[in-house]
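thread: overnight batch results

M.L. [08:02]
morning all. the overnight job finished for the chain we discussed friday. pasting input first so we're all looking at the same thing
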Amino acid sequence: MSKSEQQYLNLCNKVLLEGSERDDRTNTGTISIFGHQMRFDLQEGFPLLTTKKVPFHLIVSELLWFIKGDTNIRFLLENNNHIWNEWAFKKWVESESYQGPDMTDFGNRILVDEEFKEVYIKEMNTFVDAVLHDDAFAKKYGDLGSVYGSQWRQWKTSNGQTIDQLKDVIHAIKTNPSSRRHIVTAWNPEDVPSNMALPPCHTMFQFYVSDGKLSCQLYQRSGDIFLGVPFNIASYALLTCLIAKECGLQPGEFVHTLGDAHIYKNHIDQVKLQLEREPKALPKLILRDFDSIFDVGMDDIQLDHYEPHPPIKAPIAV
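M.L. [08:03]
and the structure it wrote out:
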């Protein structure tokens, strides 16, 4: 049994058994605990869950989107990645230029109203097509504001300049590996209330070099355990492996520290189903040679021997 995956399953059990019921921004309701940490040894295998199939290509394209400093979902759509669609779509349907059917509370309505769901799918397809093919529309409604890619690569300073945090931290790892300042933050208090489609859930990460290995610790203020956290684990493990390779280091640990760790109430049955499954061997990450992570493409990242249980679908809370 994978020690890495068992930590995640233990978290699921802990929240189901000990979590408090809480209201939330989406009006879905959660079961939540506060403060939890998991450690993943990246030498053991790549920590992509096997108790349900997790679409690795979505993790790769999203991470490359962050690394590029991009904030427009067009890049994701071009790579058949739709995981950020709802936030951009919400921006469009709440704008004065939207003239279609009422999309209020679409995230919950599609779960209970099949007729509305058909209308929603039609409107979403119209939106996706416009982002892909209409430059002006994409610029206005496909952009999510100062989300992860912007904060990582173009942090705005008080004097109007920008800081490339990711580039700087890679340089620092190479030139001063023992530093305690290998930190990238996405939480910008000025941008949170006014210029972000979704305030960063994974807020800050720090790298640590020891014995020729690169480790990373993430602080995540809010973790959707069933849908989001499996992506976050794999994404930051992949980021660690990519940076380690550029810096001539081996991957060490990924340490995942969670603030509000929660299971949405409409994910409880799915979590229980997943807990009935036996974990399988972790896959192996294969990276092609590259000089800089900023030059890495989709084809440069592959998985070997990923043989998970079938996927488990669940609605996303927007």
